[in-house]
Write a structure and sequence with these properties.
The protein has 75 residues and is an all-alpha fold. It has one domain. Helices cover 76% and strands 0% of the residues. Helix 1 crosses helix 2, helix 2 packs antiparallel against helix 3 and helix 3 runs antiparallel to helix 4. The radius of gyration is 14 Å and the shape is elongated.
């Protein structure tokens, strides 16, 4: 999450505290709008607390989204 906050700080030209608030707001928005399992996986991925690593977390998110969309091809 620190890397994302740093990127937002640099690209938006805002303080680190402001960037953290922005990142938290986006993560919470995504978590609320996505299916429960997928939203929590996105939060874990962004915060870096997932135990499966980035690749495993991304695969889990992809599978969760694909399942919710009825197995859409290409996901």
């Amino acid at each position: 999450m620190e890397q994302l906050i740093k990127m937002v700080t640099e690209k938006a030209g805002i303080s680190e505290a402001q960037a953290k608030k922005a990142v938290d707001a986006v993560v919470n928005f995504l978590k609320d709008k996505m299916p429960a399992g997928v939203g929590s996986q996105v939060e874990s991925f962004v915060k870096g607390s997932g135990t499966t690593g980035a690749s495993g977390t991304l695969d889990s998110i992809k599978n969760g989204i694909s399942g919710k969309l009825g197995g859409v091809a290409g996901l």
